[in-house]
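Let us work through a complete example step by step.
Step 1: write down the sequence.
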Amino acid sequence: MQNPWLYDERRQVGTDYADEARVRDYDAGMQRLRNISQEVEIVAQALSLSPAATVWEIGCGTGEVALGLAAQCRHVYASDVSPAMIAFAQQKAVERGVENVTFEEGGFLSGVVPPEPVDGIVSQLTLHHLPDLWKLTALRRIARYLQPGGRLYLRDVVYPTGVPDYDAYFAGLLAGVRREGGDELANQTIAHIRDEYSTFAWVLEEMLRQAGFAVQEKLAERFTTSYTCIKQGR
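Step 2: predict the structure and record it as tokens.
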């Protein structure tokens, strides 16, 4: 085995989406909770998409954003480590007659990559599945598949810098989640904080810099932060 120390990003952390029924439930929940059309527009603007552009989405889930972006660019390469997610997304593409999206299994560290450098990369709520060492490895790897001057839109759960008491911070955050989203969402948030690998803003921003990205815009919204970045150099 080459590089036997490589982190297995297919190892399940958090909810297991290998089951088709659970994937369907996930997709239905995302349709309720997310404004997909608005999300697609935000990503398209962040990446400055043109009809000739190519995009790689990492962690595409059930494919809604990839399918939406396909209407605004030449081709979308979309990958996810869950075969069940990929199969579900492929079926959506067939049903909707979208032919300029390629769904294939893969992640940040392994699996499919675009056949040529792309103009934009997008990843939302996926990088936190990797411990910090492997976040930096992942960012460096994907930078190699981005054109010089190409754009990265990264959105994830990021913990703010300079909080004096994170126990108090999490308690306040969870109180708001429970009030607005109920017990189930609060319990999912607790599991995320306890079991997954979200990191601090100052750590992630230094990783982006070391991977060769310059942050052009940062937007923090409660539990998530989005970064619009440009690849520097060659």
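Step 3: interpret the result. The chain has one domain: 20-164+198-231.
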